[in-house]
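In this supplementary section we document a worked example of the pipeline. Step one takes a protein sequence of length 319 as its only input; no multiple sequence alignment statistics are reported here. Step two produces a three-dimensional model, which step three serialises into structure tokens for compact storage. The input and output of this example are shown verbatim.
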Amino acid sequence: MNEIWTERYRPKDLDEVVGQKHITERLKAYVSSGNMPHLMFAGPAGTGKTTCAIALARGLFGDEWKGNFVELNASDERGIDVVRGKIKEVARTAPLGKAEFKIIFLDEADNLTSDAQAALRRTMEKFSKVCRFVFSCNYSSKIIDPIQSRCAVFRFSPLQKEDIENYLKKIVEKEKVKIDSDALEGLVHVARGDMRRAVNSLQVAASLGKQITMDVIYQTTGMAKPEEIKKMMETALAGNFIGARDMLDNIMISYGLSGQDVIKQIHTSFYDLSITDSEKVRLIDKTGEIEFRIVEGSNERIQLEALLAYLVMMGGNKR
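The serialised model returned by step three reads:
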């Protein structure tokens, strides 16, 4: 249990990467040719961007991959001095062994300042014979156009539920973890396409040393049960504001949720309510307003209770 499962079960080959076949097939072509352009991996967290970069380096360099693969996190050092100093120093050094070039992997590259990105594009051109860059980012729009035009862009999509479930089953089998079938489905729901979140949540639940149930999953992942959120909203729509507020208190205390956590789950529950599409549109509009106020610093309890009051009034107009 001392080792993080996301590292222990990280795929070591491009064929093992889950749910991104349209990307891995193109990357395997680079491995076959022994060459590659600068790359940009864009997409949500936990979808395999870092894994693909490491697997690509393994395929290109074999046993020498660690000496020719440099990983830097742009969110730690994001200014122009880093590009002119640290990155440039790494880029100008020759690759090890028989490799013709090395790979610099810039994780969270969208955190680089505009000045740093502008300085980086010249480094990419000057040392392209001995160095290739792989940029990893959540939002490609934050990367300046001159860098994007120098890269082959790969867009990662959230993983499908089936892919996450099958991968978790492999881990459960190897770790000999006892888990209920509905708890496994709960993990997939909590992950929302993020494999890292799914595996980390499974390890936290397994660390309790007992049978993993649905209750354990939601308690360890900091999420309320969807049915509890739905019941709270239905209670408000039925006109029982005090009952709905008591349910809100219980949810926030029992699961230790913040106002933003609750508002996100409320948003996903709208589509399960027995109301018309026009009413769902009004609810989404109101929820967006409440979420904005919470982010801007308003009291989250007051804002959440205001949303429940709005549901009560909406239900009252129907009665």
